[in-house]
Specification:
Layout (H helix, E strand, L loop, with lengths): L2 H16 L6 H12 L4 E4 L6 H12 L3 E5 L6 H5 E6 L4 E6 L6 E5 L6 H5 L1 H7 L1 E4 L2 E4 L5 E6 L12 H4 L4 E3 L6 H10 L15 H10 L7 H16 L3 E3 L3 H17 L7 H12 L4 E2 L9 H12 L13
Parallel strand pairs: 1-8, 1-9, 2-5, 5-8
Antiparallel strand pairs: 3-4, 6-7, 10-11
Helix pairs in contact: 1-2, 2-11, 10-11, 10-12, 11-12, 12-13
């Protein structure tokens, strides 16, 4: 698949999802970037803002398998990965796959599950495999975890640890619609649910081809240095207890490459880095105790860093990353 084909593929999916989801083009793009870059997305906002609907619309647009898991305190790791059960007819143990064996997993209210269950997602999110009773099972491709959490209601929840947050390519907030978008939503869902009529416009095989093609997007030495300067600045910022890890810098690179491809370009610009820095890096910064209760404090740290780090030229000599 060519890079221009990725651009056209994204346009088809974006338009199709947009027939259900109103006014969230930027978030739809981030979902597309995540699945092409083999990443995962954490959607954070109050109930009723369309988090579940967005994940379902994306799955139906790509014609791939989809499973929804409602996370609760009594959910066990085996409820996600599957179990070996004894088949009395065959007189042997058989493996019964859990809901992780799919292409797109919606982990609804992920912070309501215990840390033990949350940690069972680490292996599958990073390595695309599940180990059960000493046997490793490979997961299908593409594989995308879309997790949701409500930031307001904290009773009976278990905050995601930094190790879990670091596995998500993006952490984004849905946000409330504008008055015009709210009116459009009411009209669109007045008589029926447009999700029921949604048809696939892409295949899982096309997403796999895009995953293999996007690394061809060129990244200059200046762009790499620019990304690294932003990451290193998070490690020395006075409000940050811990800065962004090397995994975070790699995630920023992948996100910028796919973002450039979605714009129809075969090279990364500083504007791509600026667009991806906050959603990719903010949730990877551990703030000092005095800053943790401030809303959007991590985003503020990155905003201040972006204003101070020198921006390279828009059109440097391109070399392969």
């Amino acid at each position: 698949m060519s890079l221009q084909s990725i651009h056209r593929l994204a346009d088809r999916i974006r338009t199709n999802v947009g027939s259900v989801i109103v006014g969230k083009e930027d978030i739809i793009d981030k979902m597309l970037i995540a699945i092409i870059a083999s990443g995962h997305v954490l959607l954070e906002d109050v109930p009723g803002t369309g988090k579940t609907l967005l994940a379902k619309a994306l799955a139906k647009s790509i014609d791939c398998s989809f499973k929804r898991i409602q996370f609760t305190p009594d959910l066990l790791p085996s409820d996600l990965s599957g179990i070996h059960f004894y088949n009395q007819k065959l007189s042997e143990f058989e493996f019964r796959p859990g809901p992780l064996f799919t292409n797109i997993v919606l982990a609804d209210e992920i912070n309501r599950a215990t840390p033990r269950t949350q940690s069972s997602l680490l292996e599958c999110m990073e390595e695309r495999q599940v180990s059960i009773d000493g046997t490793t099972h490979r997961l299908g491709r593409p594989f995308l975890v879309v997790a949701t959490q409500n930031p307001i209601e904290q009773h009976g929840t278990f905050p995601l640890p930094e190790a879990q947050l670091d596995r998500f390519l993006f952490k984004v907030k849905m946000g409330y619609p504008t008055a015009a978008e709210g009116l459009d939503i009411m009209k669109r869902f007045m008589s029926d649910n447009p999700l029921d009529e949604l048809k696939p416009v892409a295949s899982a095989a096309e997403i796999e081809e895009a995953q293999l093609a996007y690394p061809a997007v060129l990244v200059s030495e200046d762009m790499l240095q620019y990304m690294l300067a932003i990451v290193e600045a998070t490690r020395s910022h006075p409000d940050a207890a811990l800065g962004v890890s090397p995994r975070g810098s790699q995630a920023l690179l992948r996100a910028c490459q796919v973002y450039a491809a979605l714009q129809g370009r075969d090279y990364v610009l500083p504007d791509d880095v600026k667009a991806m820095a906050v959603p990719v890096l903010a949730h990877r910064i551990a703030l000092r105790s005095a800053q943790r209760l401030r809303p959007d404090a991590a985003e503020g740290v990155l905003d201040s860093i972006m204003r101070t780090v020198a921006v390279p030229s828009d059109a440097p000599l391109m070399t392969r990353s």
